[in-house]
Structure formats: C-alpha cells, structure tokens
Amino acid sequence: MSGESGQPEAGPSHAGLDWPNPERNRAGVPGGVIRRAGAQGPRSWIQKVLEQIMDSPRQCVTPSEVVPVTVLAVQRYLLEDEPRDTVPKPPLYCYDVTISDGVYQEKCYLDPSLNSLVYQNILKVGIQMRISRVSCLYNEKRIGQGILCIDNVHCGETSDSISLETPFRNRAHQEKPERPLRGGKSHYLALWNNEDPYGDIWLTDKQPEEHNFSDTKIISLSHLEMTWTNRRNFPALLVRILHKSKLRYYGKPDKKMIEPYQTFLEVADSSGTVSVIMWNALCPEWYKSLRVGLVLLLQDYSVKKSYPSRIQPVPVDPQIKLISTMEICLNLRDPPTNIIIIPEKQVKPEWRLPKLNHRFTTRSELDDMPENCICDVIGLLVFVGRVQRSKKKENREDFWSYRWIHIADGTSEQPFIVELFSTSQPEIFENIYPMAYFVCTQLKVVRNDNQVPKLLYLTTTNESGVFITGHRGQPYTYDAKVKNFIQWIRTKSDSGEQKNMVIGGYYPYPPVPETFSKYSSSIKVESLLTAISEVRKEIEDLQYREQKRIAIQGIITAIKYIPHSSATESASASETLRNANRPSTSQAARVEIQERNGKRHQDDEPVNSQYFQTTSTNLSLSNKIRILQGPHANPVAVPQPGASVQTKGIKPGMPSIFNRRANTNASLQGKARKTISDRWESQLWREKKFGLIDHLHYSHVYPESIPRKFMFEHRKFLSEQYNSQPAKYVPPEGRPPKLDDFKSARSLGHFEVTILGLNHEIAIDVAFLPMYCPEDIRTSQIDTLLTSMNYSCAYPQDTTGNDRLPGPRAVAGDIIKAATELDRVHIVGILDICNLGNNKVEVYLHKIYSPENTS
Asked: Gene3D superfamilies under this entry (predicted)?
C-alpha cells in the first residue's frame, strides 16, 4: 500500500482565530483579526465573545450575554492522534460547527463531549442554539492563532428565517478547498458515512483528450502478467473500465495519511481483465470523473501481487480471462501515475477492447435465479424508503447508509425489492424518488426458500452502480430487455401511475422466519435474546437513523388501537390535518388521539405492504382477512389465540378461531357491525402495572414513519424528508408544505402493544403497524395476530357490488379480539428499534413467537 504523509500541521489549523497585531487590526481580514468594535453598525455577538476571551485570564469563559445563533453547517472529520497520545482514544471523529449571529459567521470546534448531540441529530443545521460556555484552543506552532471551541450548548427549534448572506468574520474559513479546524487532514468526510465523496476536493472536470499513440509503447494485460516480476519499467496499458467500486476510507488516528481513500477498477483489454487500485489523493482527483465504459491509457503505474482474500467480479463475457495473480496500483507518487481518458471516437476496432455488456434480468426471471447470482435491473421506481444506517461493527463509529426501494418492470405483478446501500454516488442516492426510471448494476440475489414467507430480494455489491437520469447514450440502452421496458413504459400514463407511488415510512424488511429456531440460525449476534432490563440501553445506544432488530421475552398484557388521524372525508391531501405527533410519551399521544376524529379519507386507497401497488379487487366476504405470502407459499403452523395455544394441523382453508367466532354473527353483508372495543388489558396487567420498576413508552408513531402517497410536484420536499440530515443548510424553495399535508399510504392506524417482562418488573409499550393492501385471492388464509405480525394484515378497504367489508375500526377490533387470547402466554417478540433523531425513537413489534414455534 502506498500513501502520503505530512503536509498540514497537527493542532489548530491556520483557519482559526488571529489575535490583534500592529500590522493587521481590523475585523474581517484574512486570518480573522479581532478588533474592538466601535459604535457603528450592528454589534456581533461572536466578536463580543472573542473579546471576552481575550480579556479573560482563563481559557474557558461563560459569555456575558447568551443569545441564539443559527447553525449553518455541521462537518465531520477524523482527528489524528496528538503527539502526546500513546493509545488512540475514542471518539474517532470530530465536528466543526458553523454558526451565524446575523452579523458574522464563525466556524467553531465542537468539544467531543458534545458529539452525542450530533449522533442523535439534535445539533443539526437550521436550528437555533444558545452557547453558554466557550473556550479557545491555541495553535502552539503559530503566533497568535487559535480556534473558538463550543463547550456547552442548548439546542432549540428550527429557525424560520435563515440568511446565508452574512460574511465570515475569519476570511480563512471561506477559502477553498475547505479545511477542518484541527488536525492535519485536508478535507471533511460525509456527515453520516465514509463511502460518499463530500466537499470541494472531489473534482468532476476530467475530460477525454486525444492522444498521439505513435510514440507510446503498449503492453497487453496477459503479457504483463507473465513478465511483470522481471520488469522495472512497465509500458502503457490501454484498457476499458468494466466495473468501478465504491470508495473505501481507511483513515485511522495513528496514520498520517492526508486523503486515505482507495477504490478498485476492473479493467480489460482483448487479453484479459485485471484489478486496478487507485490510492489516496488520486481518488479525489479522478473518482467522480471515471465511469464504467471509459477507455483509459495508464502510464507510470506499479504492479504488485494481488491480495488473496479479495474476490474479483466475474466478467460478463466468459471468454475474457480473469487475471488474479497481480494488481495494478495507481498513485500520486512512487511513481506519479499518468491517466488519460481516450475519447470513444479515437478507439480503433483493431484494439479489440471488450464491449461493455450487462446482465439485465426481468422480475419474472428473478424467481428462478439462484442465491448470490449477479444481475442488473432496470425499472420504474414505485417505492423509495427512507435512508437508514447500520453499524459496520459493534462499538464503532462507522456506519453503512442504505434504503429499501421497489422497482417495477412490467413483467410481473411483483416488483424487485432492493436493499440499496450507498454506492459513493450521493448525487443519485439522495435524489431518487418514485416515478423515476432506475438502473442498478451488479446486484446480488438474496433468497431463502426454506422459510415462510420465502425470502427474495436484491442487494448491492461493492461494484454496484446506479443511474437515474441521462440514460440516453448509455451502452445499456441497446439491450433488448431495456428496449422492452421502454416499450412498456410508453403504455403507462403518468397520472394513473402516480397514485400507486409511495415514499418513506417505516419498512419492516426483511421478514423473519416462521419459527424461532430458524430465526436463531439466520442472525449473527453475540446474544440471541435481550433481557427486557437491557432494552433501554439498546435504545439509548442507537444513533440517528440507525435501525436495529432484537428479540425479547415477555407477556402481551394490553393492546390498544390508535386510529390514523385524518381530516374530514371530503378533505384533499393539501387540506389534511397536521398530525400532531409532538408529545414525546405514549401517554400524551393516547390522550391527544382520543380527542381526534377517527375517520379516514374515503380516497385513502389500500397499499400492498410488499410492493405498494394499489388495485381494485372484488372479493367475497370469506376473504376479508388475508396474509400476503406470495402465490406459492404454504400456510404457517402458528398458534391460534386460545388458552391451550394449540395450532398443529392447520390446513389450507381451515377456519381459525377468529373465523369460528365471526361465524356466530349473522352475515356482515349489508348489516351493521356490533360495537367494537378498541382496547384490551389483561387481569395480570391490572395487577402489576402500578408496581413496575420501569415502564418504557416507545409506541408513538411519528409522521416520518408513515409511508406517504407520492406527489411528483413535491418530489424535492418529499425526498428531503426521507434523506439524511444534510451537513450544510440548504434554504427551502418558497414556503414548504408540512409532511402531514400528504396522504398516508395506509388507512389503518396502528396498535399500542404492552409487553410485560417475565419477572413482572419492567414493561415496554411498542407499536404494531399492520398495513392495508390489495387482496390476492391466491394467497393463503391464516387469520391470527401472530401471523399478521410476520406478514402484515391485508384488508381490502372497499369492494364493488354488495360485498362491503369492515372498515379500519372493525378490523382493529378483530385483531384485538385475537390478541386477548394470548393472555399469560410467554412469547418471544422480535422488535425493530428505530432512532429518528432529535430524541424521537420508535419500537415496532415485528413478529411474535409463541411456545409452539420457538423450538
């Protein structure tokens, strides 16, 4: 491995405070010299604080006046070890916060003890905050330089009026490229992951240039493979890029690397394909300019033995030789690599460079593809989930960013379900929305046919790439399957498709297996079960947009239906009530929702929990409750509600306990339902609830967890709501709407489920979120609460003719009735914990395992 060291000095950078000196004694000059302000113009709070620090004999001061300042940027970077440090100390990352007092902007260093405010997305751009203690960190290698440090803050609400026009007091803070205040790093990282290129060091302007090959000696890859160990100088390579990996950041506090990045290119000529590794400073210079399909001339590279544990992507063309004994290294030095992009018009047939081939797969073909198979897909985005994060390793600060999307291509009623990790293309990852034509390459098939429901989805690989605009001219447009998709799209109407599109919300995927033993074998964790006494710590340890799945044991002791809050039946989407999800406790939420009208929109169409397509289905009354398993799934042997909890021997079509009870009533067609209870609590709960040592309330469902019907004219606003918080403030265009103005893609509300620990000392309130979705008469009927926890309940909202089916409250009553018969049954609950940031945490009940299916 090769890299660079040195350059910027450790400690506070040159972009800090400069104290007054006789030669430069005015505010706003380069270096940020402070002067004592006169009476003219508005007085800057930032400058007053700096003057107070100057006059104080101590490094840390409490401002004489605490006023709100606006946060304009929160930027992250790796702080290398100080010379006095012998052991790397967490946290790994530091934050610079840019504030504005209305007169000046100032970039400040956030004391690491306050990092948790960023981890929880409490300290974020656009808010007002009050700084109650500051200090100065001096650069001992420079005269009169230091940086302003924030030591104590109170974060407030989002500011309604923010100006970006205020100048920096210290002009060094606006120099390009931006540099962190501390340490020797020359750049900032993306705020929420390390894979995305961020900042102005990442160039995009590398253009093809014609080259005179008359004096250029070129060697083939196969010849290089045979002779490289005996060579000191290597002739040029003329190759085409077949794959490009996402970025890898390998910075560590104890390594003096300025730009510690790495990326892999898979390149090929007529004789074979080989891996090319681009190191360090070459990545910011070239990464965003290199695209799959470009032809490169590589000179002054180095060659080394390949890394044995790395698996190269398999070439699309099986006739291309895979060279795995060597790797090509490109670096800024040792030696300095020369890279030239050759224009396609200069590429000659006699070079016999391989064409860029794809493995496009249709949704109808996916059902027969084996696990781990690699494919490319093209389709129409019909669902785009919110950005989520998962830890790369426990007890570390590094995260993956990902989101779930659904892609329809017209060859199947089912969409592609894709787990889309960041591919180092933030300009696309953060700007995808339903109704867009989407291409994703190098996806891997994930499937498990031995569980119920069958698991089948695609996930990105290290070489995956995404395309959402500018498809014209791309090599894949000539593929036959791409042409078929384009023909299918031409038959669709935008207005008709838009009502089927959904964005955001909590997405409970992938589903867990039908038995606890299968669940146990499918996950890789240190401890399979979490004690209910440890749940609070699990919740508190989660960071912004992190989602984690755990298993607890307990007893369901209470359940309550919380209707979906909406406006009157005739209200349009823009007139929908603002759903007041402000209370931070479930008790406040319950009181508020009780005071609201429980009616829903007549036009809130049902949405499929598996692929969010709305259709109209005519169903008989006997099909009023279904579980979506897919057309070939078998019924699951799960416990029916009842004291004996006996479930063995369930067969297709066998009525459940709920159906038997329902049959005691007269036909519901054209008749009114009996009064339905929307809550239940057990005798055990009534006995124990006032003697608990802890009761966790996490059943509140916030607006951002409700999937919304997509409206194309508001695509930018909706995309922003479900992306991660940006590092820099971006002013909204006009007066933005509220998220609650957009209709929910679900008509049914949610359930507040209380689980009591086995020792009867701790309880937790969690949310259960069944979803409306269109009926599919091919699916199997299993009408239990236990099953609905796994597959989501499927209730048609309306049918044609005389088959009027029960509404949300009737359905809620049915679910509650099923839950009541779990009284005193010991269950294992699979919980999804979601941290939405800003002290908003939700816990969802994803699946219940009873004694019958925990073995």
From this structure: Nucleic acid-binding proteins (2.40.50.140)
Average pLDDT over residues 754-783: 68
Q: What is the DSSP letter of 326?
A: E
Task: State how far the Cα of 75 lies from the Cα of 98, in Å rounded to an integer.
Answer: 8
What pLDDT is attached to residue 767? 95
**pLDDT score for 629:** 27
The whole-number pLDDT of residue 453 equals 83
Domain count, the chain: 4
Neighbouring C-beta atoms of residue 500, cutoff 10 Å: 23
Per-residue b/e over 46-55, b at no fewer than 16 CB within 10 Å? bbbbbeebee
Residue 585, helix vs strand vs coil? coil
Estimate to the nearest angstrom the gap between the alpha carbon of 513 and the chain centroid.
Answer: 24
| E strand intervals along 579-665 | 626-627
Positive/negative CA dihedral, 651, 656, 662, 668: negative
| Residues 80 and 155 placed together within one structural domain of the fold | yes
Q: Note the pLDDT of residue 53.
A: 87
Q: Judge contact between 498 and 436, C-beta under 8 A.
A: no
Contacts of 136 (CB under 8 A, 6+ apart): 17, 53, 59, 146, 147, 148, 149
Q: Does one domain contain both 329 and 381?
A: no
Residues 108 and 170 in one domain: yes
Output the pTM of the full model: 0.82
In the numeric block, the tokens 């040592």 are attached to 693
Backbone angles phi, psi at 814, to 5 degrees: -65, -45
Quote the tokens at residue 542. 């989660």
Flag whether 845 is in a domain. Answer: yes
Residue 48, Cα to own-chain centre: how many angstroms?
41
Sign of CA dihedral 655, 657, 659, 664: positive
Shortest CA distance to 272 belongs to which of 308, 226, 231, 233?
226
Mean pLDDT of 318-335: 89
In a domain, 207, yes or no: no
Is residue 340 scored above 80 in pLDDT? Answer: yes
**Residue 159 reports pLDDT greater than 60:** yes
Q: Which domain holds residue 757?
A: 553-564+676-707+744-792+805-853
| DSSP output for 242-300 | EEEPPPEE---TT---SS-EEEEEEEEETTEEEEEEEETTHHHHHGGG--TT-EEEEES
* Farthest-apart Cα atoms in the chain, separation: 96
Q: Return mean pLDDT, the chain.
A: 78
Query: Which residue, of 186, 204, 230, is where some domain finishes?
Result: 186
| Residue 828 falls inside a structural domain | yes
Range from 20-29, 376-385, 410-419 carrying the lowest mean pLDDT: 20-29
Domain assignment of residue 299, yes or no: yes
Cβ proximity of 440 and 460 under 8 Å: yes
Q: Are residues 844 and 778 in the same domain?
A: yes
**Is residue 305 within 8 Å of 357, Cβ to Cβ?**
no
Which is higher by pLDDT, 410 or 89? 410
For residues 593 and 139, the model is more confident at 139
Query: For 40-54, 280-294, 318-332, which range has the lowest pLDDT when averaged over its residues?
Result: 40-54
- Integer Cα distance of 501 and 233 in angstroms: 57
**Together in a domain, 306 and 374:** no
Q: Which residues pair with 154 in a beta bridge?
A: 130
- Classify residue 335 by its DSSP letter: S
153 vs 137: CA distance, rounded Å: 18
Q: Is the Cα dihedral 463, 468, 469, 473 positive or negative?
A: positive
Same domain, 115 and 72: yes
Kindly report the CATH number assigned to the domain that includes residue 65: 2.40.50.140
pLDDT tens sequence across 615-632: 333 322 223 223 222 323
Please report the sign of the dihedral spanned by the C-alpha atoms of residue 755, residue 761, residue 762, residue 765.
Answer: positive
Q: Cα–Cα distance between 272 and 242 in angstroms, integer? A: 11
Scanning 499-627, the segments in alpha helix (DSSP H) are 516-522, 535-541, 586-594
Q: How far does the chain reach from its first CA to its final CA, in angstroms?
A: 50
Residue in 760, 716, 767 with CA at minimum distance from that of residue 737: 716
428 membership: H or E segment, kind and range: helix 426-429
